[in-house]
Amino acid sequence: xxxxxxxxxxxxxxxxxxxxxxxxxxxxxxxxxxRCLSRAWAAALSTDAFVDHHLRLANRRGGPKLCxxxxxASADAINAWSPEAETTTAPLMAVPHGTRNGxxxxxxxxxxxxxxxxxxxARLYFVCNPSAGEVAxxxxxxxxxxxxxxxxxxxxxxxxxxxEQRRLGILVFDTMPAPPALPDDxxxxxxxxxxGKLCVAHSCRETETMSIWAKSAGDEGxxxxxxxxxxxxxPAFSPRAAELVVPMAVDCRDGRVxxxxxxxxxxxxxxxxxxxxxxxxxxxxxRRMGMEMRxxxxxxxxxxxxxxxRRSRTQCLxxxxxxHATGAVRGIDRSRIAVLRDRRFRxxxxxxxxxST
Amino acid sequence: xxxxxxxxAAAADAEEKESGSRMITLTSNEGKAFVVTExxxxxxxxxxxxxxxxxxxxxxxxxxxxxxxxxxxxxxxxDEHGNxxxxxxxxxxALAKFDKDFIAELDADKxxxxxxxxxxNYLHIQGLFALTTQCxxxxxxxxxxxxxxxxxxxxxxxxxxxxxxxxxxxxxx
Lengths: 357, 173
Hints:
heterodimer; A: alpha+beta; 3 domains; four-stranded antiparallel sheet; 8 helices; 28% strand; globular; B: alpha+beta; Potassium Channel Kv1.1, Chain A; 4 strands
């Protein structure tokens, strides 16, 4: 034995270098509690890198989960769907109070586990964290959607879009090269975030294949081919039959890819090149509105969520800065809401620099 | 699995003549040699890249940061995951059961668990590192901040006001 005393010493500490790896595997609420352990930890457990790490590991035990936002006033809950559950969905949290009198729609794309909901008639905006069952009324109208009717201009390597609300500002985006192999044809090309990486998926109608490229590391990385999937073998997923096939998530346990073809979902396994079809009632109603979300792994979750919801009613809803991305780890500000809002673009737009004024 | 280094080299030579599965020698910081299949060794990304770069397969790989006891346990994991298939549901279930028993045994000796975690990190054995860090996370997630502070051996340096602010933020929503 190299260190016989190591086994007997009771006071042996957990090595510092694993702090983040360990906390990335803990429930969001425990992470929150542990932020008051020391200054260094409060800082370490609040960084963007940690939040992303935590989110990537979120569904390591049960495979991917998709959040299904409400689509109408009659919907009373935000639901979760997972490939294992197939046709059943589990309620995550109640629809925010004050939205029942009219249509409620998701506003923009989900971002870091957060979802922005808009109650049209009530003219209210809510930031929801379905994973934690938390909801907050945004203090003000979310800042500027871009006016897509007006051509953007490209200056100094960045795209500039006029905001719909002009006095609120102009949106500035970086651009990056698309994968070199991406054909310039009419086939559907979509962006996806798989296992924390930016991906482009292209469906070719002629060859009935889907190619998925992933950006290897950060903005400067190279594009690499992740999968080339021969979809001709599964008619429901063929680009000729389905309008658009979108990779939704990667199962971090075995690398299977969850494909959404609108009316069917399938689990693609690259090692055995098989596709396991998952049918979901009325999935077409909310297709592509799903977002990958955290699993809190607790049966008590929905109960806790409704309790929190009741509390949020009586407390007139907490201000938006207290909602936490990934179930816990940080507050939210106007610029973050801007990011939520702007993720609706399908272009090669990767991040905003000036979302709010 | 553990043999003397002379026998190890001989065994490795013999195996290398066989096409397909080469044997690789890993040496602990006490100089003890462990002969494993290449498939087993490839569980470690560190060793995998060294093998692929055409590194010192014949000479073996000295691991100055890992002691014999830890290395033996790490190899036990690598053998199971490297040498067995995981294509069918049954095979996956068998591996999952192995992992469960493996980690339950490790969990009984925290200091050794930390040693194995450090070795898994050093050798970049993703599955093992995930298994051990998850185990540590599960142990401490129900503990009070004071207990966690003790477990990690950290100094309390927040003022009462700092703590109040952080708690205040946490209870909202």
